[in-house]
Amino acid sequence: MTERSAPTRSDSKSPTVKPATGKLGVLLPGLGAVASTFIAGCLLTRRGLGEPVGSITQLGTIRLGKRTEGRVPRISDFVPLAKLDDLTFGAWDIFPADALSVARESGVLEERHIAPIADELSRIVPMAGAFYQEDVKRLRATHVKTAASKAGMVEQIRDDIRRFKQEQGVERAVAVWCGSTERYVEPTEAHQSIQKFEKALAENDPSITSSALYAWACLQERVPFANGAPNLSVDFPAAFALARDLAVPIAGKDFKTGQTLMKTILAPGFKTRALGLRGWFSTNILGNRDGEVLDEPENFRTKEVSKLGVLEHVLEPKRYPKLYGEMYHKVRIEYYPPRGDAKEGWDNIDIFGWLGYPMQIKIDFLCRDSILAAPLVLDLALFMDLAQRSDMHGIQEWLSFFFKSPMTRPDLYPEHDLFIQSMKLKNTLRWLMGEELITHLGLDYYD
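^ thats the sequence. predicted structure below, dont judge the formating
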């Protein structure tokens, strides 16, 4: 049987994709371990001193047409993405250390990877951050903006963006949040419309956190914004409306890196094989700044909500009550300074099979948080820029592949299955370039 591509393409006409000319500015709120590792990796790859492992824009491929056609180009050769040589980096942080100092202090990269690019890293000095202590209680900021109101903070960030673009000579810019997890906040009346949000900014509404100030400023400057943390930054009606009105892409939230990545790989397998799940206990030990921040219960709650939603959406216990109706899911994160950025995730998974007989799976994932997150920052920056040049504004659900808590339209539930997410991402790229979508449907039996 010969597999064919879908008989027809999407009914919606593919947009015109503007070329990726000139420099692309990549703005990073939060110049910590993740951001410095990302920047260093890009600089090393430019020089041929490293490989961008984990980046699907750099190493991933995409099948076009039938399998018999043998058309499987690299994604970077198929869609007009910005080149690594065209990227220019800028950042904000609440501490004044430059990217070189941060890279060394973070302890993620060895000196052999830092020394060749030390001069370039040292020139990336963060702009002062917008910060309110109640959002991240464990950090004592020393490099911050001051303003009479949160509206004033937004205007200062907008000034930073305009100055960065002018001084660096960039034609376009994107922003990817790489900062800390903030305290848990649910949308309030202030988040329901543009007018209410701007009024709340002027009144210093406590429900508006620091990350939302960056997001609002970026949207107003027509800079696409991707949220790499579980913060309430752009996933509320006012941000949806502003992104629509100004034709700006938004995406989020919370980078899918270690333990949750494993869940979105394993859980779809259990469901596909109709294997039952009684319980999934997860705990992490982490010693970097992120671990310190998450040691605060209010901040951990934000991360916990992001992590807990995955299994519920993948396994659909209401639809499969005999398999998952009594599933127990628990998540813990423990701050353990000696571990640094080398996070360790432990999972105990209690499954059951034929006639209800119990089985167990144990996972000990000794991962590196920033090493897993850095390629996601690159891919999101390039894909968000592609979306902007393709006039794909608003929520970019096709980028759910990169997030723990993917943003969707308010009337839709998020898709967490990593393999469905990958299919959606690649079909979106096919649609953009006028190629037929792939359904993996074999039609020879019906010829």
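The first strand starts at residue 24 and ends at 29.
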